[in-house]
## 1
Amino acid sequence: MTEPPGRRERKKAATRQKIADTALRLFLERGYDAVGIRDVAAESDVAVTTVFSHFASKEALVFERDQDFEQRLTRAVTDRPPHEPLIPALHREVQALVRHCTAEGSAPVRRMIEGSPALREYEESMSLRHAQALAAALAADPHLSRSATACRATARFTIDAYALACQADDPGATLDEVFRMIKAAWEATAP
């Protein structure tokens, strides 16, 4: 008997979420370095291979929303109405992402990341990849007509704005300030 399309994907998504939630709970309870993939698999009641079919590495378990983050940023460019200016669209999306990273209960995760060289390195490589994806989306938009350099710089500044705001005492004010600079730089590169 064949499962309806969608059911399999829902089950895979539920398993992925269960693994990620279990891993994060274990990391916070015991410490990131004290927990191995086998511990996560056992606690999640799945095989180690199942963990690796959903996550490429132990670090990826901490950043389980990585792909969603990247897609949201690129969609802020690609899905905005043609008449909508780019920078406000990016600003709104980054504001929503910052609300998530500064939500109640996120501080222990941030401390764990800051306390682990492996997680900080993974986060930096992730940020570079996000900036590349965003730069590609900017460069591909025929209505923007900016140089590759302007697209890469704007993408990197956008990713950095997110990081700065997540670590700031006043995330909203920090984001507003950085986006004023991004807007000025973007407008300065107009043909």
Note: The chain has a mean pLDDT of 92.
## 2
Amino acid sequence: MLATRPRESLTVRAVAAAAEASTTAVYSLFGGKDGLIGAVRDRAVAGLFQDVSAVQSSADPLADLYALAVAYRRWGRGHSHLYTVLFGGVQSFDPSGEVGASDPIRPLLAAIDRAVTASVLVGEATSIALSIWATLHGLVTLELAGAFDAATAEAAFRSAIHATLRGWTTPAVFGSLRQAELAH
């Protein structure tokens, strides 16, 4: 319901009816509408965190960042309703505050920090993360909306993520990446 309706139109009565439960059960379990919405959002955040946290670090920071993007996309495609709750614009989302221990952005920031330390990427970690997330989010959102066929979605994902990462590389790394691409 949260993925397809504005928060304001969701009622405890409608949720209880859809779950074939009483409104008392919803209030007992979640404390009301806001608690229920929070629980759904928490479930989505936990699932996304679990999938991106499962990505193993390697000696190649760019490969790690690409693998994180793949995990994010896979989770979004596999959990489209939860993805919509988190990022679909139906619900408000306030990204302010500290990054928590189980925040899905944590593995991305850690990989970016490793890449900056290794002189593979240059820039401020938050700016790099925002550009990667904006590109990734746009791609996944368009894919879930049916804007691409499967082949186009795959090609767009690969090229856009590689281009975004390449845009943050140091001049030496950029040159070697472009030479490798031209050789293929």
Note: The first helix runs from residue 12 to 18.
